Amino acid sequence: xxxxxxxxxxxHHGRFTTLDRANPTATxxxxxxxxxxxxxxxxxxxxxxxxxxxxxxxxxRAVLPxxxxxxxxxxxxxxxxxxxxRWDGVRSLADAMAMLQRQVAIxxxxxxxxxxxxFTEHQFVEKRLPTIAELNAVAPDTxxxxxxxxxxxxxxxxxxxxxxxxxxxxxxxxxxxxxDAAGNPSGLLLAKPNASILYATxxxxxxxxxxxxxxxxxxxxxxxxRLGVTGxxxxxxxxxxxxxxxxxxQQLADAGQLxxxxxxxxxxxxxxxxxxxxxxxxSTSRATTTSATTVPARCWCSPPPTSRTSASPGPTWxxxxxxxxxxxxACWCRTSGPGACTPPTTRPxxxxxxxxxxxxxxxxxxx
Length: 367
Description:
Elements: E1 9-12, E2 16-17, E3 25-26, E4 28-32, E5 35-40, H1 42-45, E6 54-57, E7 67-72, H2 74-80, H3 93-105, E8 113-116, H4 132-138, E9 144-148, E10 152-155, H5 157-163, E11 175-179, E12 185-191, H6 196-202, H7 210-226, E13 229-234, H8 247-254, E14 261-265, E15 299-300, E16 321-322, E17 334-335, E18 341-342, E19 361-364
Parallel strand pairs: 1-6, 7-13, 8-9, 13-14
Antiparallel strand pairs: 1-4, 2-3, 4-5, 9-10, 10-12, 11-12, 14-19, 15-16, 17-18
Helix pairs in contact: 2-7, 7-8
């Protein structure tokens, strides 16, 4: 019997492991709406094709499930992916510096040349990173920012001028601006002990226009697809702010152009008041989401529960003025005025996070 709706995609002449004991292997599958509709042999699946069906001959290749990465930075990484020079897999520092020089030659002002992770000095035959002098030699006027893991960043003289780091710049909390004998920044930034100075410095760079950010994010997702990644959890952070930095991923979701199944957390850029009396709603539809409600900057609430399994506020519910975001995800309340607080009958279940600024987790699924 022919299905009323033909498959959108048929993969055949391949090798599939089904984990079905009765039929452990297959050579062809039919897919519609992101789901397998038929699994079997070529002679059974190919007759299902219609004019609108895309048919791909796998030429005997094995088909593997897509990888799901549980810690990526698709949202903020996608905004600048087209700006980045990648040193992944480059075997020598000489080759890397030649790539850098070519990129400098085609980078218009005021844009930077950025190498944001993906490499280590141990991959180079020279077993070292470039020196600041070497960066200045290949890029005397174009800012260059090199992020090595999350432990340090190298900036050439043009980048130091662009970000405004001088002899008078105070030492950042949790980081170090390495200085020369005269007290001037050398171009080396160290994470001591956290990477805030690295994030803050990179965030000072010029951004792409919105339409370019759309294109950049699509290229980033396609690169991840090329490596076998089909799903991810975006870890946020690193000066990634809601709502401005989430607008690109929202538009791609609305247009059905996400090629990664994505779950992420919201990082509000500023505190906001809200009249919400319950936790933010989670989106359950594909390719659409509801607007997330941020936790109010100040909230009447009970002391934090002593147990994560506590289902009620307890008998000693006392008003408590919260002036920070700390524990905001675990504490929601109803208020009927500045002098009264009525606890909910049950404590809502909200995803908890180790970050004090994370508020909700919202899923987006490609159409």
